[in-house]
Please model this.
Amino acid sequence: MSFDLPSSLTKPGESLDADALASPPKLRKSRGYWADVWRRFRRNPTAMIALCYVILLSLVAILAPVIVGTKPIVAKYKGQLYFPFIGYLIPSWEDPLLIKIELRGRYSPQQMKKKDPESWALYPLVFQDPTRRVRKGEWPNQPGNPFGDQGKPSGYNFLGTDDLGYDVFAQLVHGTRLALLVGFVSTSIAAAIGITLGALAGYFGGWVDVVISRLIEVMLCVPTLVLILALLAVVDRATVWHTMVVIGLTSWTSIARLMRAEFLKLKTVEYVAAAKAIGATQTRVMFRHILPNALAPVLVPITFGIATAILIENSLSFLGFGSQRPNASWGTLLSSAQKNLEMWWLVVFPGIAIFTTVLAYNLVGEGLQEATDPRLRESAK
Model:
């Protein structure tokens, strides 16, 4: 028996080699879901610029004590090595000998040389402190920080100083860590609550769905900022950690509603029925088979939630309920501008920081929404 090969497989005057028939061409491995989402996300230039800005903010938050500060990165004092800059990150880790006895928290080159002529230190790029006023003589040939109306931007104070002489640039850089920490911690709390309650409501239905849905509706009826202020009023000496927890406890409703909808849709698909047929437990079906496939749409409100948490924290700091001095906060800087409206730099620079950060996270969220939602992709064509 013989047959003719299609003309598309051979060129005129050529015959197909037997080796070619024996070894068919290799099939390309299909792209995974997340790789496909990343490919579509990269095609959005606005979202990519926003993502680069978010990464830059994260680096600034991590390296803040290296960028600006008065505590050395590493110092050799009386024959021992110290890392005083850790005090900006975790105050309890800073060596108490240097703080209370030897140097009293001041690491100026003159003071260290006076105590120990053989000492040396590697300082941050900018010698300014976010928690106190730098005085004259702490750094060679550097004057003390002005305060009040005299604290305009200058060569020593790039973005000026506030009413107490604290450097604005140092507070903005170190305040980046607080802003991102509030955003990520509070959103993580909200995501944990929203994903759990939404999954339970969508999977079990019945009275579980009714109770959780009514709870979501009650939470949506109360203004978020009013509820946060009421909860913070109950706490004695509220700290930034209390603020994070309260924001997380009041920001989970949108995540829960979306997760509930995803579970209602996915619990009826074939692979879930197959998992139940082979005896998988309800916990395994929920968290092993349904949850991984329901997480993609939830990333969008989580990203928006980070921006909202940053905005809420700065609003609370502005009103006097959030982070207070000596902790550096963008909202606290805006609040200090009320004392003297002529200090325009206390409004412009913190305002730009808050605006660009919130905008960047919102643009990243929109990019994720477009990359994960097929309906938006089709409408954009």
About this structure: The first strand starts at residue 74 and ends at 77. The mean pLDDT is 82.
